[in-house]
Design goal:
Keywords: Oxidoreductase
CATH superfamily: Luciferase-like domain
CATH topology: TIM Barrel
GO molecular function, one term: oxidoreductase activity, acting on paired donors, with incorporation or reduction of molecular oxygen
Structural class: alpha/beta
Strand content: 15-25%
Distance between the termini: 9 Å
Domain Luciferase-like: 14-282
Radius of gyration: 19 Å
Organism: Mycobacterium talmoniae
Largest sheet: 8 strands, parallel, barrel
InterPro entries: F420-G6PD/mer, Lucif-like_OxRdtase_MSMEG_4879, Luciferase-like_dom, Luciferase-like_sf
Length: 306
């Protein structure tokens, strides 16, 4: 499954859950086999993923991503286990470190020692997934439940865990404790020269399987690439101000985030996406760029045929 798609929410709809499930069903009908939903402050990604997977049998569904703050990993694990059962074993838990400014504004918390918290969070999740029990006392987290009662789903593997990691320390922790990474706006050069070797080495040192790298790429299929790129420039400019993305832009030799969007005809986009696989990505997840000039269906068709 080298290509999947991100489902963008439509807040103009009368019922965002019904609308997203319908969108997922149409994507599946077009041949898409894996979709992703993002955490928002007005709906919950894990719950929505569970509802999508239950409504569209056979469709893989994951979160991209759920911030580790402010929820405790035991609560995330309980929700993820529920989603894994609801989707009949087709759920992927995607986590993120979160945004400092957003968390301060929304929750009144300051993200100190973020990578240490990620390590502790993943350690708890790893124990629950692998051992079905946890007794952990860390610097930032405590998690005790002996045993953690598993949700029964005969024959299903435990839910996999991915982290949207791009910094060196976060990638090493992810390689040691998670199943892969979900980098966004990380181009082929960044994947080949930095992300793939860093996370792969960390996994090998920890004795874990080779991690998957699912590159999330902003995409538009269009015959007027210049017009679409101009139309999405402002929406992507947000990432130009974030230090982790500034480092990616520097590695890629790009001046702004919009330069890393893959925009063009189906043939052009397919060719550029394959360069991510050549660079070491396991697969690509297409995040449609929505404008008055673009449509979701061509992106779904491209993902299905990729």
């Amino acid at each position: 499954m080298p290509a999947s798609v991100v489902l963008p929410p439509d807040r103009s709809s009368a019922n965002i859950v019904d609308e997203t499930i319908d969108k997922a069903r149409r994507a599946h009908d077009a041949g898409v086999r894996q979709v992703w939903v993002a955490q928002q402050l007005d709906f919950d990604a894990i719950t929505l993923a569970a509802l999508i997977g239950a409504a569209v049998p056979g469709l893989g569904v994951g979160t991209s991503v759920v911030p580790i703050n402010p929820r405790h990993p035991m609560l995330i694990a309980a929700a993820a286990q529920t989603a894994q059962v609801a989707t009949h074993g087709n759920f992927i838990l995607g986590l993120g470190l979160g945004g400092n400014a957003i968390e301060q504004r929304a929750f009144g918390i300051s993200a100190a020692n973020t990578v240490q918290r990620l390590r502790e969070h993943l350690t708890v999740l790893r124990a629950i997934v692998d051992e079905r029990t946890v007794d952990f006392h860390g610097a930032q987290l405590t998690a005790v439940d002996t045993p953690v009662m598993p949700v029964a789903l005969r024959g299903a593997a435990p839910f996999p865990i991915y982290v949207a990691a791009m910094g060196p320390r976060a990638l090493r922790v992810t390689g040691e404790l998670a199943d892969g990474t979900l980098p966004y706006l990380a181009g082929p050069r960044t994947i080949e020269e930095f992300i793939a070797p860093t996370i792969t080495a960390a996994a090998a040192e920890a004795g874990r399987p080779r991690p998957r790298i699912i590159a999330i790429v902003p995409v538009a299929v269009t015959d007027d690439a210049d017009a679409v790129r101009a139309a999405v420039a402002d929406s992507l400019a947000f990432y130009d101000q974030i230090p982790s993305y500034q480092k990616v832009l520097a590695r890629e030799g790009a001046s702004k985030a919009a330069d890393l969007a893959v925009i063009g005809t189906a043939q052009t986009v397919t060719r550029q996406l394959k360069s991510y696989l050549d660079a070491g990505a396991t697969e690509v997840a297409l995040r449609p760029l929505q404008t008055e000039l673009t449509d979701l269906k061509p992106v779904w068709d491209l993902a299905a045929a990729f």
